[in-house]
Amino acid sequence: MKTKYPNIVEFQVTGDYALFSDPIMRLGGEKCSYQIPTYEALKGILSSVYWKPSITWRISEVRVMNPIQTEVKGIRPINYGGGNDLAYYTYLKDCCYQVRAYFEWNENRPELSGDWNENKHHQIALRMIRKGGRRDVFLGTRECQGYVEPCEFGSGKGAYDDLPELSFGLMYHGITYPDEAYSEETKGMMTARFWYPVMKRGVISFLRPEDCPGQKPLRKMSMKPFGKDHENFIGIQEFGEVD
Fold first, then answer.
1. Under-70 pLDDT residues of the chain
2. pLDDT, averaged across the chain
3. Which residue, among 199, 189, 95, has the nearest Cα to 147 in the 3D structure?
4. Longest CA span, the chain
5. Complete DSSP assignment for 120-131
6. What is the pLDDT of residues 105-155, one digit of tens each?
7. Beta-ladder partners of 200
8. Element (H, E) at 169
């Protein structure tokens, strides 16, 4: 299914292990991965490949290529009070996903409208995918290293191509930060989103953030300033223009 946007990017991300979980499960203790990647995790992967504050990545679809398998590992995490603890983490293993995404202009940052050059950002993003990304790629957590390469979405044989439909119940979708607010309720707020994903023939089509049925305001949060008169601008220029 193609989107109406011309700046589509398609890539494949693979990794030995992945841990996609609700942020509330990241506070400590036992951690258990969702069966499928979250919208926020895939957006984070794409942001590691290429990102600038003038654009907002939208994940359209993900295709699960390998069978969903888990592996439990004994981990010794660091306690907040010092020392180590013992916990069991449940990871996905032998992961491979095809992803289709596109970008839109971040209209919450009109001061960066001079950078709204679609062809430039699209070509840089495609080049960064071919190079494997600008920054390290992780599948959910830092200990789960990922690898990105170009692909044609829908090519190859997937493990669930013959499965008509599989539902996963209520699931974390992502977090809306103030610089990506889409309504009066999300302006100046950190908002968690939830939805009910359904996989059809191995493909999960994501809802747009504003269409998620579950919206939970977490706390007030100010938007980080950018612009020519701000100290962050130099860093943005350097990050956005280096090949």
1. 1-5, 25-28, 226-243
2. 88
3. 95
4. 55
5. HHHHHHHHHHHT
6. 999 988 888 899 999 999 999 999 999 999 999 999 999 999 999 999 999
7. 203
8. none
> Residue 162's CB: how many other CB atoms inside 10 A?
9
Give the HSE-up count for residue 81: Cα atoms under 13 Å, Cβ half-sphere. Answer: 1
This prediction's pTM: 0.87
Look-up: residue for tokens 């996989």?
Answer: 199
Q: How far is CA 191 from CA 83, 105, 185, 210, in A?
A: 33, 20, 9, 11
Helix pair angle (39-49, 118-130), 10° resolution: 90
Q: How far is CA 21 from the centre of its chain?
A: 12
β 87-105/31-32 pair status: parallel
Alpha carbon distance 10, 102 (integer Å): 9
For residue 67, how many C-alpha atoms fall within 13 Å in the half-sphere facing its CB? 3
| pLDDT score recorded for residue 30 | 81
